[in-house]
Design goal:
Elements: E1 2-5, H1 11-25, H2 30-36, H3 39-47, E2 51-57, E3 62-72, E4 75-83, H4 92-102, E5 109-114, H5 119-127, E6 131-140, E7 143-153
Parallel strand pairs: 4-5
Antiparallel strand pairs: 1-2, 2-3, 3-4, 5-7, 6-7
Bound molecules: coenzyme A.
Residues 21, 25, 81-83, 88-94, 114, 118, 120-121, 123-124, 127 line the site of coenzyme A (COA).
Length: 160
């Protein structure tokens, strides 16, 4: 498995991965899933210098993605972390998270939003040292939904 920076040429495959993984994770209408993972936004993120957008690849395909968006000098938003359903629980999410952390030196805090019913995502983040800080409404593309606000403090060497 290799972890690489996402390039514009990867966006079509990444969009397919996101749509498939969202369908498996969230009970949302297909139309909302497609609109929340728009090609234009993904392309912008791949080109944005403030965003770390990485993908995991095996010999034939992209198996997972992570997006980290720098918000301030010492704070980063983990915007997305998705692994293809057929490739989950093989350590790919952990490797993407570790690779992402290496790309954000100097960061003291990582924040993220997670759907309360997403047991597997929350379990993963708790295992990585995140804490639940609150529950709030979040706008995602074309709809609003309730999310846990989670955060992880990086003091000294990251605990992963
Ligand atoms: C959450 C996700 C990114 C984790 O990636 P992964 O490659 O499957 O995770 P790893 O194999 O690195 O697992 C690390 C640990 O996370 C936890 N975990 C991962 N998947 C889990 C699941 N389905 N149920 C419970 N715990 C889970 C486990 O503690 C696991 O360690 P273990 O296998 O030694 O018990 C991936 O499962 C995924 O894409 N899920 C759907 C989308 C999602 O929830 N993304 C997060 C958005 S908020």
């Amino acid at each position: 498995m290799r972890i690489c920076r996402v390039k514009s040429a990867d966006i079509t495959e990444i969009r397919r991965l996101l749509i498939k993984t969202w369908r498996d994770t969230y009970r949302l209408p297909p139309d909302k899933i497609r609109r929340s993972n728009g090609r234009g936004d993904l392309l912008l993120q791949a080109e944005d210098p403030k965003t770390v957008f990485l993908c995991a690849r095996d010999k034939i395909r992209i198996t997972g993605v992570i997006t980290l968006v720098r918000q301030t000098a010492d704070k980063v938003l983990l915007g997305r972390l998705y692994v293809l359903p057929s490739c989950q629980r093989r350590g790919i999410g952990t490797k993407l998270f570790q690779a992402g952390l290496k790309k954000i030196p100097g960061v003291k805090k990582i924040i993220l939003n997670a759907a309360p019913e997403n047991y597997q995502g929350i379990n993963f983040y708790l295992k990585k040292g995140f804490k639940i800080k609150g529950l709030r409404w979040q706008k995602c593309g074309c709809f609003d939904y309730r999310v846990y606000l989670m955060e992880k403090l990086l003091e000294g060497p990251p605990m992963i």
